[in-house]
Amino acid sequence: MSVPISYRLILNSLMRKLVLFLSIVICGSLQAQTRLNWGDQGNGTYVNPILNADFSDPDVIRVGEKFYMVASDFHFMGMQVLESDDMVNWHYVSQIYSRIDEPGWNHNQHYAGGSWAPAIRYHEGRFYVYFCTPDEGLYMSSATDAHGPWSPLHLVKRVEKWEDPCPFWDEDDGEHQSSGQAYLGRSRHRAGPIIVHKMSPDGKQLLDEGVTVYTGPVAEGTKFLKRNGWYYLIIPEGGVGQGWQTVLRARNIYGPYEKRIVLEQGSTNVNGPHQGALVDTPDGQWWFYHFQETPVLGRVVHLQPARWKDDWPLMGVDIDGNGIGEPVCVWQKPIPSPTPDHVTLQTDDDFSSPLGLQWQWNHNPDNERWSLSEKPGWLTIHAQPADSLKLCRNMLTQKVVGYQSECTTVVTASGKSFAGLCCSGKQFLGVGLTPEGLCYESQGQRTIVKKGKFKKIYLRISFDCTKNLHQFYYSTDGKTFSPIAKPFPLRAGYWKGIRVGLFCYGTSGKAHFDYFQQIIK
Question: Per CATH, which fold does 5-28+35-332 belong to?
């Protein structure tokens, strides 16, 4: 029996309202549950964000039954590679590089520089990662195994102000049957236009000056896809905090391209849902990863259901009926899997060798001035002169994970050094030992909290990213902790969300750190 159009419209409207209502109810009820109110819920569903930490501009691919992710790391070293079996729970498996051998990187002079919006692809048995830095150029690294080792960074082109590159090997272009013509798409600083270059098959050289294929409002984040004879450019537009996701398609890689907006904030509280990756599962489902800019944690990662209609991808749920998807809050997991009893991202470290993949140095490390073997089971950092935390060499950092967390370490220090626990975003704050006693630094200004000589001291910071109030503590016995100064706000800065870390700077001496623990609440 056919249903009149008017009734179908009414039913569709009711279904959209039901989806929105259930999302609100379920998300609200999760606040009262003991399980984390994000990520894997242990009942076959997940709640966005799936990665509640700063993974800016994520790109994801599937190889076999495994999924791999990279994200922008800017001035932090390493570019971590993550792996997942179910698209929701992720862990680190490698880092692509350990330093950028260019001027200024040994002296903390490139805040907000470094790796912008990488792309990861798999071609003829190799993983390839491309990224641009605003000051140095277009880089590439490759590996036969995502777990590494990765090849040394190769400078494909020395150039300033390029952004968001993505390689593409056209396997069925009808002209290069063995390996396909290689291309690279990218944009320019301040986003746009989208430019396509021919590239050598090994991905190490651009073969032309490029062809502009699209100009749009803050068009960036180029990602290639080919399906059913269509070339797709999957791009964000409109800016980081207010933008939307656009899809372009054409029968020729150089266009002309048709355009469709496929994901927007709409009636949700997920601002700027864009810039990410459209990925399929082994059984033919499609899913879209994107980030959301938040003021404290940074750019957190969401996962949206996707599907195809008339050779256009549809993302999220069209709640308001305008033909454009909106982000979901809660959804069924793409791939059933056992639910871990903890967040699978590594955070803790007992400082047995090697250093955990969760750690990233702020700018280039000085590898002669830190060690895991000098005092086995401890991290040793030798002091180097600096005026403040912001200019401190060998600051070792990791992402703050989740809405609430608590980080603890124990430190001993010697010489004329300042060593301890720090946090950063736009601001730099830290607590630690000096020859005068326990000190607190905020925005380059240091004050004494407690005078005296300490054989060792336990340091802690509690993060509340919902209230944006954070607090340092100290203890002499590891049991009773006293607050240091007043609770303080933080905000993301230099394109990165807030971080926690360890440091030691001064004219002489060194620090030993016994362990680091981040408890996600």
Answer: Tachylectin-2; Chain A (2.115.10)
